[in-house]
Specification:
By secondary structure, this protein is an alpha/beta fold. The protein has ten helices and eight strands. The chain has one domain: TIM Barrel (Alpha-Beta Barrel). Helix 2 packs parallel to helix 4 and helix 7 packs parallel to helix 8. The longest helix is centred in the middle third of the chain and has 18 residues. The protein is globular.
């Protein structure tokens, strides 16, 4: 998932690091009285809507900090430049708070040119951050309509050569938010990103929403990078088996904790343990029991523990496996 439009968010590249005890909301994430429904410019970056998809007002307070993981993991996919609730959190604050919860590093993901530039900035500003750069599939459709997709892809290609970039993404296909008329542009963009990832020796992070068959088809038609990651894995057991067969990573978000996500937990049970990653997609997809509230990297322990419960696995062992997998996918931070 990714926000749009994307104003300058450079104010988030500053210092500070107040933390919290388990059960308390971290100090950096406590509301300061700012209107959480305010526009993108109010806090240096775009903001998530204060209303839920059904139009009802949602709880925009950040959840309490969990018990920290004894074995740290990395957040495979997050959007630090996208605000939620009445707070503005810097990169340093976000990482310090995540570290205190047992999350040692993150991949800051771009969805358009501006957010991809921010991702590279953040990765240079803080060694705990790696960058991913791309044009989101929904943005690809809009850019193609305006005749701007080619120039945007050229800038992403330039950014992908930066040494702090380890992935091209999030790219892929989204048939939920884009109609039939936008699919050719999405597929063109996806193929271009795959070629880019191969040429730069980068991983690819795939956004796949209601497009499993075409994603798999295109991956089978063109050269692909050594590391393919399904961000916010949304498939079932069948797609998990396909990923196992091809060595594609499956990154599970807070959705795996939702009560109605039995298919995801079945896929997790089938997934090759060496191909399992974890992510937030923050500020979206907050794990149960805080679904709908703002998400952040410090909340990953809730997801990891839920995954361990579903697998009837030891939390420390699963965390160690996830950390090893993440390093195998992207290299050292």
């Amino acid at each position: 998932m990714c926000p749009s439009p994307r104003p300058d968010a450079s104010s988030r590249l500053e210092t500070a690091a107040p933390l919290a005890q388990p059960g308390d909301t971290p100090l950096a994430y406590r509301a300061t009285g700012e209107d959480p429904a305010a526009g993108a410019g109010s806090a240096g970056g775009p903001r998530r809507d204060a209303k839920a998809a059904n139009g009802s007002k949602r709880d925009t307070s950040y959840p309490p900090a969990p018990e920290p993981l004894a074995v740290p993991v990395m957040d495979n996919h997050t959007h630090l430049d996208f605000g939620d609730g009445g707070v503005t959190v810097t990169v340093a604050q976000a990482l310090d708070t995540a570290n205190a919860a047992g999350v040692s590093g993150i991949i800051q993901v771009g969805c358009d040119v501006e957010s991809s530039r921010f991702a590279v900035q953040a990765a240079h500003a803080d060694p705990r951050v790696l960058a991913a750069v791309a044009i989101h599939p929904n943005d690809a459709s809009r850019l193609a309509e305006r005749g701007e997709l080619e120039s945007a892809l050229a800038e992403i290609d330039r950014l992908a050569g930066d040494p702090r970039v380890r992935a091209v993404g999030e790219t892929g296909l989204d048939y939920f938010r884009t109609g039939d008329e936008g699919r050719p542009a999405q597929q063109e963009s996806f193929r271009a990103h795959l070629e880019m990832a191969v040429r730069h020796g980068q991983a690819v992070q795939i956004h796949d929403r209601e497009a499993h068959a075409d994603i798999v088809r295109i991956l089978g038609q063109v050269p692909t990078p050594d590391t393919v990651v399904f961000h916010c894995f949304s498939g079932d057991a069948e797609l998990a088996r396909i990923c196992n067969a091809h060595g594609w990573y499956m990154s599970f978000s807070g959705t795996v904790t939702f009560k109605n996500s039995g298919d995801l937990r079945e896929a997790l049970a089938i997934a090759d343990p060496s191909l399992v990653l974890v992510e937030t997609d923050a500020p979206f997809l907050t794990p149960h029991p805080y679904r709908g509230r703002p998400n952040a990297s410090y909340l990953i322990p809730y997801t990891v523990r839920s995954m361990a419960d579903a697998l009837q696995a030891d939390v420390d062992g699963l965390s160690e496996r996830i950390a090893q997998n993440t390093t195998a996918a992207y290299g050292n931070w």
